[in-house]
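queue> pop job 88
queue> type: inverse folding (structure -> sequence)
queue> payload:
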């Protein structure tokens, strides 16, 4: 059985724990427009991208060096008809050792091609994971969306 959830994978030379730490440094790779905690089980944080995207995440699974799961508990995407498309979806980071490297697989369970935002959201996630998170893990420098004052 194949799933249609959006997923993308990166492979890095760093350890699973280094990848895990980078994933939890959300302001270092996704956006600096963040409020709340992003590291411990049951932490909650919200992000904003202007008036286009708001979402609130809760960490529902945190296994150091192996896995991080965010449940989207609230969302408002103003560029699609159903502005709450993300609410109830889960973002999963699976971390495994593979051939002497660390593989990070990002999946947004529930972000499927039937969603109006799938094209734009999957493209944005691809950039954030394959460029920004990859850079944060491998060089210590990501490319998050900068803080709006």
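queue> result:
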């Amino acid at each position: 059985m194949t799933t249609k959830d959006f997923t993308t994978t990166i492979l890095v030379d760093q350890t699973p724990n280094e990848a895990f730490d980078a994933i939890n440094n959300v302001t270092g790779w996704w956006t600096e427009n963040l409020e709340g905690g992003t590291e411990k089980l049951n932490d909650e944080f919200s992000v904003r991208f202007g008036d286009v995207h708001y979402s609130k995440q809760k960490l529902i699974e945190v296994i150091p060096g192996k896995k991080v799961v965010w449940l989207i508990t609230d969302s408002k995407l103003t560029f699609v008809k159903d502005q709450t498309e993300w609410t109830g979806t889960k973002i999963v980071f699976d971390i495994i050792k593979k051939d002497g490297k660390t593989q990070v697989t990002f999946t947004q369970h529930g972000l499927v091609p039937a969603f109006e935002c799938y094209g734009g959201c999957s493209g944005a996630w691809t950039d954030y994971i394959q460029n920004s998170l990859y850079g944060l893990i491998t060089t210590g420098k990501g490319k998050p969306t900068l803080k709006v004052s």
